[in-house]
């Protein structure tokens, strides 16, 4: 049985690798998990011995097939918990991530399946992240653009928020930028701010946050 800390490392490797398309370095993991590089190296050695990651000196790590299965199981727990907290317990969408982080290590596959059934097997969580199904397959999402790439004057629908730090989520919630909201890019400033028009008015977003927001064209957005 894996410890909660081991599962956190596997989830972090999956998230970074999925975002960058490249092997994951020690420094990236240390930054993501807020730990020291020696701590990361020690844990990566343990995960390598368990056959969950493939590690090459100076090239970083990647999940093995077995490690990816573990990552998808954790994501299924986490994202269904977020959906349950939001839909059935009236948690704000910006607050469910931290709570699900605490719970994801302590729920069984059976409980997760029951949550999915009660919620009618949702395809995405409150942040727009895809939820692996019972076979650990992810729904496809095509035609997406990062908000930073939406041209000035164009309208789009927010589909996914990738940056899920508590600070970023609450910032976006206060700005009225959340999945399902239609926005228009007003200005992309050379110094890093992206100004968008939301139903509540204009909001200026830091470039880092704008890069974490996935959108779909309004004419092609899913209903």
UniProtKB/TrEMBL annotation:
Keyword list, A-Z: DNA-binding, Iron, Transcription, Transcription regulation
Pfam families found in the cross-reference section: Fe_dep_repr_C, Fe_dep_repress, FeoA
Subunit structure: Homodimer.
Organism: Natronomonas moolapensis (strain DSM 18674 / CECT 7526 / JCM 14361 / 8.8.11)
Region of interest (Disordered), ranges: 199-223
Protein name per Swiss-Prot or TrEMBL: SirR/DtxR family transcription regulator SirR
Main location: cytoplasm
GO CC terms: cytoplasm
Subcellular location(s) per record: Cytoplasm
SMART domains per record: FeoA (SM00899), HTH_DTXR (SM00529)
Superkingdom as given in the UniProt entry: Archaea
Domain HTH dtxR-type: 1-64
PANTHER family, per the entry: IRON (METAL) DEPENDENT REPRESSOR, DTXR FAMILY, IRON-DEPENDENT TRANSCRIPTIONAL REGULATOR
GO molecular function, a single term: DNA binding
Similarity annotation: Belongs to the DtxR/MntR family.
């Amino acid at each position: 049985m894996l410890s909660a800390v081991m599962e956190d490392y596997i989830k972090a490797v999956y998230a970074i690798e999925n975002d960058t398309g490249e092997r994951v370095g020690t420094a990236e993991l240390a930054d993501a998990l807020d730990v020291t590089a020696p701590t990361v190296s020690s844990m990566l050695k343990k995960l390598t011995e368990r056959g969950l990651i493939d590690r090459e000196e100076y090239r970083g790590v990647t999940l093995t097939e077995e490690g990816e299965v573990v990552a998808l199981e954790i994501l299924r727990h986490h994202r269904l918990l977020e959906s349950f907290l939001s839909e059935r317990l009236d948690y704000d969408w910006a607050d469910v991530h931290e709570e699900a982080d605490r719970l994801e290590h302590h729920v069984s596959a059976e409980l997760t399946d029951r949550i999915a059934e009660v919620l009618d097997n949702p395809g995405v969580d409150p942040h727009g992240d895809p939820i692996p199904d019972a076979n650990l397959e992810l729904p496809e999402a095509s035609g997406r653009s990062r908000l930073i790439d939406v041209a000035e004057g164009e309208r789009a629908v927010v589909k996914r928020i990738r940056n899920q730090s508590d600070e970023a989520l609450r910032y976006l919630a206060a700005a009225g930028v959340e999945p399902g909201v239609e926005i228009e890019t007003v200005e992309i400033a050379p110094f890093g701010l992206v100004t968008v028009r939301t139903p509540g008015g204009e909001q200026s977003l830091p470039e880092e946050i704008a890069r974490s927001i996935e959108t779909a064209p309004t004419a092609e957005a899913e209903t």
